[in-house]
Write a structure and sequence with these properties.
Oligomer: single chain
CATH superfamily of the largest domain: Dihydrodipicolinate Reductase, domain 2
Keywords: Oxidoreductase
Strand order of the largest sheet: 12-11-7-10-9-8-13
InterPro entries: Gfo/Idh/MocA-like_OxRdtase_N, GFO_IDH_MocA-like_dom, NAD(P)-bd_dom_sf
Number of strands: 13
Protein name: Gfo/Idh/MocA family oxidoreductase
CATH architecture of the largest domain: 2-Layer Sandwich
Largest sheet: 7 strands, mixed
Family: Belongs to the Gfo/Idh/MocA family.
Organism: Actinomadura fibrosa
Length: about 350
């Protein structure tokens, strides 16, 4: 299988390395808006670089991975499916709601499989939490708590084009909650704050956000996100039920310390055994590799997409409702933003 990859920034270069190591992938071809960067990454990995995206599409591909900046996602997805190429695309599918809806429709018309990169669906902790819910071991679920806490914010130039905290960051929590519980969100109440760099407020964004989601069975989900969590990168999901509770992402690198100096193990002050994860690429390294292995199966026609565009759209609706709620300071039903 010959797989093309558009975009060789941080996550794109990582995807290229993963693809190169998959036995089903005979060749990886890279392209980037900066051809020199594509050549540099290709040389380091021992793969081929195309001189442009047009050249990439002319390279007799069997599948395409899209890891470009968000603004290019929708056009590349549509171009690929119209050419009959199965696609893996990093979230989001498009930069806004209307673009997402139009892209979902284009994919549906094509009949070509597309997988959106919500890597938490492949994280062992989230999968185990999902199994615990589906098995009934937790009883009925009453509360879900999900957090994504970044140690430092993205570069200033990224913020104005990010779509905002709820669409850029929280959307992973929204998809994770839907995936683990198997329920849909029906209403949200969201708020945010700015206490960090001025670029957030200047861009109409926030650096800290919280949302309460009401699910269709009455379960409440609380989502917390921040750009300035100095303790370290922290992604967790707790599912609490009438019989038991579980948490994904709590391990010996979780950046949490008891405020009361509790001892664990006996005789020693509690501290994580290792340093906190530096960011999403490290925290979800195994999940990123697993989702690309799954995509190869999708591209080969051996499996359906584990995260089709329609799933991405549902998470985007939740993010959109949260943004409306934050701006208008009120509860917002998902049906208000649904097209």
């Amino acid at each position: 299988m010959r797989v093309g990859l558009a975009g060789v920034g941080r996550i794109g270069a990582g995807h290229a390395a993963t693809l190169r190591g998959l036995p089903e992938v005979a060749e990886v071809v890279l392209a980037d808006a900066d051809p020199a960067r594509a050549r540099e990454v290709a040389r380091a990995l021992g793969v081929r670089a195309a001189g442009s995206v047009d050249a990439l599409f002319a390279a007799d591909l069997d599948a395409l991975v899209i890891a470009t900046p968000t603004a290019a996602h929708a056009a590349l997805v549509v171009r690929a499916v119209e050419a009959g190429l199965p696609v893996f695309v990093e979230k989001p599918l498009a930069s806004d709601l209307d673009g997402t809806i139009q892209t979902v429709a284009a994919v549906a018309r094509s009949g070509v499989p597309v997988q959106v990169g919500f890597q938490r669906r492949f994280d062992p902790g989230h999968l185990a939490a999902r199994d615990a819910v589906r098995s009934g071991r937790l009883g009925w679920v009453h509360t879900v708590r999900s957090c994504t806490l970044d140690p430092v914010p993205p570069p200033d130039e990224y913020i104005p084009t990010s779509g905002g905290l709820f669409r850029d960051c929280s959307v992973h929590d929204f998809d994770g909650i839907r995936f683990v519980t198997g329920r849909e969100v029906v209403e949200v109440t969201a708020t945010g704050a700015n206490r960090g760099a001025a670029v957030f407020a200047e861009s109409g964004d926030i650096d800290t956000g919280s949302a309460v989601l009401t699910l269709d069975d009455g379960t409440l989900a609380v989502v917390s996100n921040a750009r300035y969590n100095a303790a370290g990168y922290d992604v967790r999901l707790e599912v609490l039920g009438s019989r038991d509770g579980v948490v994904a992402g709590l391990d010996d690198r979780t950046p949490l310390h008891p405020a009361d100096g509790a001892l664990h193990p006996p005789g020693g002050a509690f501290r994580p055994a290792g340093p906190p994860h530096t960011g999403f690429l490290e925290r979800f390294a195994d999940a990123y590799a697993a989702e690309l292995r799954a995509f190869v199966e999708v591209a080969a026609g051996r499996a359906p997409s584990p995260c089709p565009p329609e799933e991405s759209l549902e998470a985007f609706y939740v993010a959109e409702a949260c943004e409306v709620s934050r701006r208008e300071r009120r509860a917002v039903a998902i049906e208000e933003v649904r097209r």
